[in-house]
Amino acid sequence: MALLPIKLIGHPALRTKAKKVTKVDRHVQRLLDDMLETMREAPGVGLAANQVGVAQRLLVAEVGDAYFQLVNPEIVHGEGEQIGDEGCLSIPGYYGEVKRAQAVLLEGRDKLGKLIRVPAEGLLARVFQHEIDHLNGVLFLDRLTSLGSLGVVEVEQEPQELRL
Questions:
Q1: Is 131 designated active site?
Q2: Partners of residue 19 on adjacent β-strands
Q3: How far is CA 59 from CA 22, 42, 97, in A?
Q4: Is 75 helix (H, G, I), strand (E, B) or coil?
Q5: Which of 10, 51, 91, 113 has the fewest CB atoms in 10 Å of its CB?
Q6: b/e map of 94-133 (b: 16 or more CB within 10 Å)?
Q7: Any bridge partners for residue 60, and if so which?
Q8: How many CB atoms lie within 10 A of CB 93?
Q9: Contact of 1 with 37, CB cutoff 8 Å
Q10: What is the DSSP letter of 137?
């Protein structure tokens, strides 16, 4: 596996709508593994292929002990509402308040190409929605509840040391 460079705000890949994956092959599986390693090293809880410069509908996520490597993920149902702070590996040092569905049902394919449905609530639901937004060229900044909710956090290391 290899660490991939994460694209930062302003890079055109972040505003590109990703294309559906037509075949889950070794290349896609390797990319998913590399994305998972990159996300963990960053560290983050989710990463979309756009964020590493690949315009394919792929994402990885990890919340608690559960991790996901998903191909062509789509939210087919959402309910409830949660408002909370979000940040992004592609926008280091910033966070903002975003309204999302409290629970979602996601459909897609796993790393082996098998069709799956994943119910998610709370933080995992937020992560899935955030990463699928990335696949559609949408950033959390586009969904802020208000511009006044945008805040700055101290980044412990310089961005290049975070492998961004």
A1: yes
A2: 56
A3: 15, 15, 22
A4: strand
A5: 10
A6: bbbbbebbebbbbebbebeeeeeebebeeebbbbbbbbbb
A7: 47, 69
A8: 11
A9: yes
A10: T
Read off the pLDDT band of 1 (50, 70, 90): confident
Average pLDDT over the chain, rounded to whole? 94
Tokens describing residue 32: 């998913």
pTM (2 d.p.): 0.92
- Measured CA to CA, the distance from residue 73 to residue 24 in angstroms comes to 13
The residue from 79, 97, 121, 131 that is catalytic is 131
What is the distance between the alpha carbons of residues 112 and 24, in angstroms, rounded to a whole number? 7
10's tokens = 């302003």
CATH of domain 12-158: 3.90.45.10
Tell me whether strands 151-152 and 94-100 are parallel, antiparallel or unpaired.
antiparallel
